[in-house]
Amino acid sequence: VSRPEVVKLLRDGKRFLLFLHELPDGDSVGSTLGLRLALLRLGKEVTVAGPDHVPRVYRFLPGAEHVVLTTELVPADWDVTVLLDCAEPARVKDAWAMACAHSHTVINIDHHATNTMFGDVNLVDPKAAATAEQVYDVLGDLGVTVDREIGLCLLAGLVTDTGSFRYENTTPRALRVAAALLEAGAEPWELATRLYESRALSGLRLLARALQTLTLTEDGRIAWLVVDDSMLAETGAEEEETEGLVNYPRSLEGVEIAVVFRVLGTGETRVALRSRGRADVSRMARALGGGGHPRAAGCLIPGGREEAVARVLAEARREVPDRLGRQ
Ligand SMILES: [Mn+2]
Fold this sequence. Notes:
By secondary structure, the chain is an alpha/beta fold. Helix content is 38%, strand content 19%. Strands 3-2-1-4-5-6 form a 6-stranded parallel beta sheet, with helices on both faces. Strands 7-8-9-10-12-11 form a 6-stranded mixed beta sheet. The two termini are 38 Å apart. Bound molecules: manganese (II) ion (MN). Manganese (II) ion binds next to loops.
């Protein structure tokens, strides 16, 4: 862990390019916008880009309106590119090549155990609850005072990555950082209202439709939902409203592995994996060409619904064999 090196690069650089990862989650958006604000306070030039739009639910975060799509990014001469919350450069898709060609140094700030250490400088700490927690430490070393706006961004990262401080990554350290962010003026009720009580009706209708597909293995330890394009069309839901659906099968008593299969029009299936107990879904995801955390991971299967369900179930059975020991 090379925090002093990261701090020096942030202090010395003038022009920065920060990346959100594809289908950005609260930690990607929160940690990146928090770092953006801090760099602006230091008088730096900062561009934030991502392969996808910022999901509607995170657009209240300060600076979200300044995020540009990587396809619209005009190459410039960047001193430093920072990838946050990205286990591998593929998370920023084609923009990686541009970053390599047009920036002097790449910093990798992340907390995924599967991180490939792709940066020139890597600040990777799987013990951090969220990348936002790592950014908080960096800002402390940089001497940037965390204000309400930065606090709101970083708290969004911490709250979403810990499942509102319910998951295993909820450490005393994460709660101490959260306390400091509250002291800086971030309001937890504001965040909760924006994140969890501002749903679009289409999202709730998609949930109702997706729950009709709920399936469990005979032993009740693996549960999954399937979402396809027709369900989005029927309900008028956006792609981003499929995020979080996996928490519903995961909430069933006795379920150890929960899965959402997002069957895409391209013939591929995007798989979201969550676990409780001993099961390690990052191992499953890696075996299927993806990655993530032990409790939250994902992959893309080159195949439709049946193929994806069969392959994922085979891997899931390795993690939670049924009572006869069958995989
Ligand atoms: Mn994260």
